[in-house]
Here is the input.
Amino acid sequence: MKKAGFEFREHTADVQVRSWGPSLEEAFSQTAYSLMTTITPNLKLISPEIEKEITVKAEDKEALLFDFLSEFLYIFDVDELVFNQIYVSSIEKINDNYKLQATLKGEKFDLEKHEIGIEVKAITYSFLNIEEKHKSTTIDIVFDI
Here is the structure.
C-alpha cells in the first residue's frame, strides 16, 4: 500500500472516497484533503496564509471523523476558508471518548484564484468504514453533493 493518499471511487449520486495512511492521524488528514479537493480541485492554488487549530471530540472514531470533516464544511460555509495543509497531530482515547487535534493552513476562497469544485452538502455515515491494521489505516466515506 502507498504511504498515504486518497482516491475517488465510483458512486452513482454522491462522491465516494477511499483514503489511507500509515497511521490513523494520516488517514484522517488524507480524508480531509479529499474533501478540500472536492470543494476546490487544485489545492496548489491555496496559499497557507491563515492557520487554524481545531479540536474535535466524539464517542467513537466514526463520529470523530464525521465531526472533523463537518467542521471543514462549517468553516468553509461561515468563514469561506479552504485549506491545503492539514495536519492531524493526535487522536487519543480519553475515558470513553476520542479527541482529535489538528492544525489547518489555508486562505479565504477567492473565485478569481481558486477553482470551483463540487458543492458538498454534508458528510454521511453511508459506507463509512475505518479499517486499522498493523501499519496502515484505510477509510471509506461518502460526501453528499
